[in-house]
Amino acid sequence: MPLNLDEIDVSILNSILEDGRKSFRQISRDTGITTPTVKSRYERLVNVGFIKGILPVFDFEKIESAGQGERNFIQLENLKENLKRRKNIRKKSQNITLKEEISEIQKKISSGIAINIVCDFCDGPVHGKPKGLKFANIERFFCCISCKSGYSEKHRGRIESIKRKYEGKSEMDS
To answer: How far apart are CA 110 and CA 131, in angstroms?
Structure first.
């Protein structure tokens, strides 16, 4: 059974699209949704694999090569070429601005959009309600109880380690 996005998910995603550097608190202020809800919804979208990462957008026109030395220029040269290549692949014949690109993405993200969930153990599709395993601030989804048990058994040491680290951080925050 796919995970359906609702208005809350969509407003969070739209806020992130405006500026991926925003804190959960800032997204909360922008959307009118509580900070814990923003955080949990964001983590859920990451855990199901919909959000793969937040990537920076570089303005290479602001790089000043004169006076900064050759080394700085060489380090950034590969990034510049990568960005040009990505732009050419993405929009070969169109000259599109960042705002227009964000607008296109926002049109694709709407309430009710379904995200297919894949089992974190067997990589098979999850039909019906997924079997969940939550530890620390991580959530994993499985197609059946057997996969959930297999994952728990296989990663028992890592899961326990993460739980201990998470509990230690929680105690330090208090």
So the answer is: 26
Provide the residue ranges of all domains of the chain, joining segments of one domain with +.
60-101, 117-174
Give the model confidence (pLDDT) of 90-117 as tens digits. 554 456 666 777 777 777 777 777 778 8
List Cβ neighbours of 142 (8 Å cut-off, separation of 6 or more): 119, 120, 121, 126, 130, 131, 132, 133, 148, 151
Closest of 114, 96, 165 to residue 9, by C-alpha:
114
Query: CA-to-CA distance for 156 and 160, rounded, in angstroms?
Result: 6
pTM value is 0.56
Give the containing element (helix H, strand E) for 78.
helix 70-90
CB 126 within 8 A of CB 119: yes
